[in-house]
Amino acid sequence: MTAESNIQLDRRSADGDAVLEVENLTVEFPTEDGVVQAVRGVSYRLAPGEAMGIVGESGSGKSVTSMAVMGLLPKTAKITGSVRFRGEELLGRSENGFAEIRGKKIAMIFQDPLTSLNPVYTVGRQIAEAILAHNDVSKKVANDRAVELLATVGIPFPEQRVNNYPHEMSGGMRQRVVIAIAMANDPDVIIADEPTTALDVTVQAQVLEALEAARAATGAALVLITHDLGVIAGHADRICVMYAGKLVEKGTVDEVFYEPRMPYTLGLLGSLPRLDEAGRERLTPIVGSPPSLMHLPPGCPFTPRCPLAQPICEEREPDLYGTDQPGHVAACHFHERLVGVTPGQLFRPTSADTGSVAPANLETQQ
Ligand SMILES: Nc1ncnc2c1ncn2[C@@H]1O[C@H](COP(=O)(O)OP(=O)(O)OP(=O)(O)O)[C@@H](O)[C@H]1O
Ligand code: SF4
Ligand SMILES: [Mg+2]
Questions:
Q1: Tens-digit pLDDT profile for residues 175-231
Q2: Cα(45)–Cα(22) distance, rounded to whole angstroms?
Q3: Which atom of ligand 1 lies closest to the CA of 39?
Q4: Is CATH 3.40.50.300 what the domain over 20-236 is classified as, yes or no?
Q5: pTM listed for this prediction
Q6: I want to staple 262 with a disulfide (CB 3.0 to 4.6 A). Which of 65, 208, 249, 366 is the partner?
Q7: Ligand 3 centre and the CA of 161: distance in Å?
Q8: Counting atoms of ligand 2 from 1, which one is nearest the CA of 303?
């Protein structure tokens, strides 16, 4: 069931050749206290031009998954599985082998733009350098292109702004400069890791617009990583939900938002303010915190926080099961019981009030 449904999803999402294929990716970090199982068998395929969101709480393995794709993990990390860019294996490549791809074919945008920008050079010079690193063009052409790229990401007066140093710009503008650098070489994939988390809400919207503009101009596929499902809604075609190093639900945005089949996804949805209900329904946050990835128990890692948990959940970790929609998969032994269930029914508000998990009684509530 698992393998079959994954293949269905991938056929539907990646008609023809996938631009990026991640298959059964695992990442472990040996530490003095034990082995951290940061990523545990993640698989996804990204079609050309597609936008995929990866959502999950802090520590669920979102960044480590992307750092493995980009070849940016420390040497101590033990990585298995496969990462293919246009059919070519990336795992096991030398630093030089990754350098051909990184920045040119796959570009990455991090949460804090200051880590990506050099404080002692103007933003124009940094964009031009990114262009010159991979293209045989004159400095004049690279500089002109830098102005164009700043205009594309919505920076006003780009002819003047191109001469600014990073500290002369606001946080939102700096992040747009980083997006301009990511676009500079017309990449096939842009991976944006929490690109708006450090910014206030109005600026977040501008940065997301800049990302959309970058996608439109380059035709790149996008992997948008966030802990906020609300950010993904208008900016992705499909969603992968991560929990404790695994993908626990995959589907289209509509499937994940309106027909979720994994209690953790319902929990994330219940934590979102929903304007349509005008505040009539209380938020239903998930009680407790995610498990340590060092000593994971044998069963479903969501068991201690799950209102639907049964004894089997402590014994056996669920596979990704297919649902009634081809390609929509969820890792829950009881996914069929969640048809038509709302977050408010599953996570009763009393759970948050008492700090303990109230078992769900779906039969009486449906
Ligand atoms: N170099 C490392 N050595 C040991 N453990 C690590 C290392 N890098 C990451 N981890 C661990 O791997 C797990 C996954 O981390 P990751 O950064 O991918 O989480 P995340 O989902 O991106 O979280 P956030 O939303 O906070 O960015 C965490 O438990 C983290 O502590
Ligand atoms: S497998 Fe069990 S504990 Fe895990 S999400 Fe499903 S019901 Fe909850
Ligand atoms: Mg992260």
A1: 999 999 999 999 999 999 999 887 888 888 889 999 999 999 999 999 999 988 888
A2: 6
A3: 14
A4: yes
A5: 0.91
A6: 249
A7: 30
A8: 3
